[in-house]
């Protein structure tokens, strides 16, 4: 079953400790070392604007370049980082690094950063963001903060207050993994999000499940009526891409369009041409 322990902001489908093969205390110590010795890296996955057929920006995705285990995905360590509170300094690093990187790209490209509910409640997210915006010098509206529905499960008043403060800075707020929470439509009432990202499970269901097409189309309609952008995540086939385009999604993201890319590959891509009209399909995530 998906990892859903109340405060986890992340949906993972395998027990992370089994895969990484160490106990929780060891992993916590390793994470502290990783932060100190700079073992974290950001990968960036392009987001395709379905109106202009150009990339609108990139989502920053955290990776851990572990000295023995290679490139470790977030599902293997973020749940423990959330439980131990280490997600706060790690998340601060992600924000600083992501904004600094985006500052090197052409100015129309956006940067999306995932933020854990633990950061919204316990961290000093607003201060971190203010400093990172100033240090990078990028326009505030280029920054998008992605939160999941789990922020509403605990301390939701405090989380909403933080979201309002972030919004007041002029950054955009996206609701990630939409449709997988307990009260998906209720969350849309609770906060005026700039964007809904429908979860990839609904996109995968297009191939098989009865009714999936109707649900996927209804979410695009809800977004349009609420004046929100809508992103379809997890696009793996041309048929899925055609489907979400026809349904009216404003953006698409997934392995068909591009895998998450290392920093240097993104730099080459964004300067290869102004418009980047042809999304590359051949990038492979290393590791
Ligand atoms: P997410 O924010 O929903 O990110 C999308 C995830 O789906 C990424 O996994 C991405 O690599 C993967 N993905 C993209 N396209 C496809 C596709 O076509 N098919 C499939 N099967 N998967 C696709 P990743 O990078 O392993 O990240 C997993 C989750 O970890 C993210 O889900 C997000 O919740 C969390 N995460 C990643 N980076 C950060 C971070 O810096 N901070 C926090 N708090 N959470 C993060
Ligand atoms: Mg995300
Ligand atoms: Mg998602
Ligand atoms: Mg997800």
Automatic annotation (TrEMBL):
Signal peptide: none
Residue ranges of domain EAL in the record: 24-274
Protein name listed in UniProt: Diguanylate cyclase
Natural source organism: Devosia insulae DS-56
């Amino acid at each position: 079953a998906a990892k859903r322990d109340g405060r986890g902001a992340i949906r993972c489908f395998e027990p992370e400790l089994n895969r990484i093969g160490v106990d929780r205390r060891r992993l916590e110590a390793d994470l502290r070392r990783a932060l100190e010795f700079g073992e974290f890296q950001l990968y960036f996955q392009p987001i395709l604007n379905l109106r202009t057929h150009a990339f609108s920006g990139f989502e920053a995705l955290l990776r851990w370049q572990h000295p023995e285990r290679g490139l470790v995905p977030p599902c293997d360590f973020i749940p423990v980082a959330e439980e131990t509170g280490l997600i706060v300094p790690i998340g601060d690093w992600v924000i600083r690094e992501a904004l600094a990187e985006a500052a090197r790209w052409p100015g129309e490209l956006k940067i999306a950063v995932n933020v854990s509910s633990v950061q919204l409640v316990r961290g000093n997210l607003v201060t971190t963001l203010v400093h990172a915006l100033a240090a990078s010098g990028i326009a505030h509206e280029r920054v998008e903060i992605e939160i999941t529905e789990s922020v509403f499960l605990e301390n939701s008043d405090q989380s909403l207050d933080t979201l309002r403060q972030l919004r007041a800075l002029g950054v955009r707020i996206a609701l990630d993994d939409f449709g997988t929470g307990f009260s998906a439509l209720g969350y849309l009432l609770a906060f005026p999000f700039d964007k809904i990202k429908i979860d990839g499970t609904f996109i995968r269901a297009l191939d098989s499940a009865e009714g999936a097409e109707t649900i996927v189309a209804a979410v695009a309609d809800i977004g349009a009526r609420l004046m929100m952008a809508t992103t379809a995540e997890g696009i793996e086939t041309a048929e899925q891409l055609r489907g979400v385009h026809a349904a009216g999604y404003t953006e698409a993201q997934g392995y068909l369009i591009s895998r998450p890319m290392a920093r240097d590959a993104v730099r080459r891509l964004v300067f290869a041409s102004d418009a980047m009209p042809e999304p590359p399909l051949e990038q492979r995530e290393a590791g």
